[in-house]
Design brief:
three-stranded antiparallel β-sheet; alpha+beta
Length: 653
């Protein structure tokens, strides 16, 4: 037998006997009773190798990270490429991280070490992180652990049949295992047995063919399991953190009109591999291996809340799911045979308790329905109308898929670029934006986002997911009307009624007709309101004030041409100026108010830019622990959700 290119003694293979003769416990985990699925991993990987290399090149430092990695037409392929990019571009780093210690780190003899036990536990709970076990070769690890367990049992029988007294080997075996398997490189005589009686026992074993074969089988299975667990640990860390380019220094978007900052990073630096190497070394050396895994989980409270929500919905699924919902409106204060099912449905989500009048749509049920409507961005009226009944009829499997997708997006969140710094974050489906600093939310406000077009060229007005830097504010801004808006919206309106153009303060700067360049002068009727917030980017998206304040009272606010419209934009301008300049709140308010009253266009540059992250996550958990399901307003999640539902269903067949 060989270990690292040199002979391995039978004594090292017998470490299992001289320790506790412990059997690997993988079979006790939840996924152990699943039918084994044979996956030709390497053949499939070779077929996708060109795509893996393309993905690796696209995500190398200095590449364009602005691409929408969650686009429906590439999402499933992205997941495959991420998986194989890990195996082919980083697997060698796994080996180098354990150079000289490439055996006995995760599995030693018949036992799992602390890192091995923790890795196995993490494989068993992949579902709680919205990860699929078959994408992490969990079944292959299980099969190897079962083979190792069988080899251990066979070795014990062979030792007994050979009549070997293993008690005399304990000290020498422990010393050799420590020296040869990297558990303590400082021990002397690491290549030799320090005990004559142990040497005699090894000679005795060598004369027993069956014992030698069994020891060889044990060593092979142990080495294979050790390597599999190492790669499994790396895959988990990759999925939870290192595939996210924002952990690796992805660059913010900038407008082509703005001179880009010099990128001083070396294009050859592999941030993902370096991070994985550190993770594996910490996992190897840390007595509390769980802390190494915890460190690579997404560090967001929202992610942890979604994990808790997922556990609740998985319990609902295990209990038979939601009661079926059908029919039309249910009227208040009336008896209806559907009320018990509706009450049970809402009780599963913790919104209502049992009632002494179960068939009456009473006030307690009205309150529960009102809360349900709030959580699902419905009109809050307490009535069980068609829209509310349709939402109640969504099966629990779809809700679980929505939570999975949301967790996956948090694993890739752009907020990873600024974990403790100051930044603005807007989750577009929630129609809100937030200012964060030092890990705490400072301020929250409502926004209006881009609307969806139900026509060819759909989503032309959709607000994109992106990251940029807020650099300056413009008080009393002019609005240079984008050509698309002029041609599709304003031109025909002003052709019919030219007086409207003058009254609203529009003027033609150059050109004529559909090719005119049009500006709206600053003032109280300007479409951008009194202030705009500029974070230069290739989409020409910014945030601004609005005349349509009534929109902020609506639960769903997708009405703009792509920019964000902010509630209380003047208040935001005062807040940003105060934080940037360090003056008092009163001084900041007077400064901004004086500029507004002057009605002169003025640029206020922020001395330190504030990162801005726009993301698209359709599930959240509110301050009361209730799960909120937002509208997929751009209909961009459907393919991913169907994929998740199909894969989850296939794993339970």
């Amino acid at each position: 037998m060989l270990r690292g290119g040199r002979p391995i003694t039978g004594l090292a293979a017998l470490t299992c006997v001289t320790t506790a003769l412990c059997v690997v416990c993988a079979a006790d985990h939840a996924w152990a009773d699943r039918p084994a699925r044979v996956t030709d991993w390497h053949a499939a990987a070779q077929a996708l190798l060109p795509a893996a290399l393309v993905e690796h090149a696209a995500n190398a430092p200095g590449g364009d990270y602005a691409q929408d990695r969650g686009a429906p037409d590439v999402w499933e392929d992205d997941r495959r490429r991420d998986r194989f990019a890990l195996d082919f571009e980083i697997a060698d780093r796994v080996a180098s991280a354990f150079a000289g210690n490439n055996h006995g780190v995760f599995a030693a003899g018949c036992e799992l070490t602390v890192p091995g036990q923790e890795t196995l536990r993490r494989l068993a709970e992949l579902e709680s992180h919205a990860l699929l076990a078959d994408e992490f070769a969990a079944d292959e690890v299980l099969e190897t652990s079962q083979a190792l367990s069988s080899a251990c049992d066979a070795l014990v029988r062979a030792v007994r049949e050979a009549g070997i007294d293993t008690s005399a080997l304990a000290a020498a075996a422990a010393e050799e295992a420590a020296a040869s398997w990297g558990l303590s490189a400082a021990l002397p005589n690491r290549h030799m047995l320090a005990n004559t009686r142990a040497a005699e026992a090894v000679a005795s074993m060598a004369s027993t063919a069956a014992l030698g074969d069994t020891a060889q089988s044990l060593h092979s299975s142990g080495q294979q399991l050790d390597q599999q667990l190492a790669l499994s640990a790396a895959r988990i860390a990759w999925a939870l953190r290192f595939r996210n380019p924002w952990y690796r220094g992805a660059r913010y978007e900038r407008s082509p009109l703005v001179e880009p900052e010099e990128d001083t990073r070396s294009p050859h630096e592999d941030w993902a591999a370096l991070g994985l190497r550190t993770f594996l070394e910490e996992l190897r050396d840390n007595a509390d291996a769980g802390s190494a895994f915890a460190a690579v989980e997404p560090p967001f409270a929202e992610y942890r809340a979604l994990r808790a929500a997922l556990a609740r919905y998985l319990e609902i699924e295990a209990g038979g799911g939601f009661p079926s919902m059908d029919g039309m409106r249910v009227h208040r204060s009336r008896e209806d045979q559907r009320v018990p099912a509706i009450r049970r449905r809402l009780a599963l989500e913790g919104l209502v308790t049992e009632s002494p009048t179960p068939t009456v749509y009473d006030e307690s049920l009205v309150e529960a329905v009102s809360e349900y409507q709030r959580l699902h961005q419905l009109e809050v009226d307490g009535d069980l109308g068609p829209a509310t009944l349709r939402a109640l009829a969504v099966p629990v499997e779809r809700r679980i898929a929505e939570i999975w997708l949301a967790m996956g997006k948090w694993q890739m969140s752009r907020r990873a670029a600024d974990p403790n710094g100051e930044f603005i974050w807007s989750n577009l489906p929630s129609y809100t934006a937030e200012l964060w600093d030092n890990g705490a939310r400072v301020h929250r406000w409502k926004v209006v986002v881009g609307r969806r077009n139900y026509s060819p060229g759909a989503n032309a007005n959709a607000t994109p997911e992106m990251s940029a830097v807020l650099e300056y504010m413009v008080i009393n801004p002019s609005w240079y009307v984008p050509d698309r808006i002029w041609r599709t919206t304003l031109h025909d309106r002003f052709q019919r009624r030219p007086e409207l153009m003058r009254e609203a303060g529009y003027e033609i700067v150059s050109g004529s007709g559909l090719d005119a360049r049009v500006r709206q002068i600053p003032g109280p009727r300007n479409g951008l309101g009194r202030v705009k917030f500029m974070f230069p980017n290739r989409h020409a998206v910014f945030m601004h004030d609005t005349l349509g304040q009534h929109r902020f009272a609506q639960p769903r606010r997708a009405y703009s041409h792509g920019c964000l419209r902010a509630e209380d934009a003047i208040g935001l301008a005062k807040l940003f100026y105060q934080r940037d300049s360090g003056v008092s709140a009163d001084e900041a308010a007077r400064y901004i108010d004086d500029i507004v009253e002057s009605e002169e266009e003025r640029r206020v540059r922020l001395t330190r830019g504030v990162p801005v992250h726009l993301e698209y996550i359709t599930v959240s958990v509110d301050e009361n622990g209730q799960t909120q399901f937002f509208s997929d307003m751009y209909l961009s999640n459907e393919r991913q959700l169907l994929w998740i539902e199909r894969r989850r269903a296939a794993l339970t067949e």
